[in-house]
Write a structure and sequence with these properties.
- The chain has one domain.
- The model has no long low-confidence stretch (mean pLDDT about 90).
- It is rod-shaped.
- It is mostly helical.
- The two termini are about 30 Å apart.
- Helix content is about 95%, strand content about 0%.
- It has two helices and no strands.
Amino acid sequence: MLALRLLLVLSGLLIVISGGLYLFTRQPRYLAFAWKVVRFLVFALLLFAVLFLLERYALVAWRVLL
């Protein structure tokens, strides 16, 4: 869970800083970077969710069968 919190905090900071830099400089590369961070964050959250479900249900079911 610590890794997930660290990922969320760092991603949030990157998005806020990129948005601020875009507002300050009006260069679209900062918006593109923020969008890439959002896509990576969604992918990472989906991966954590799948791993959580795997741990919660698949491994518990495997232990019941043994």
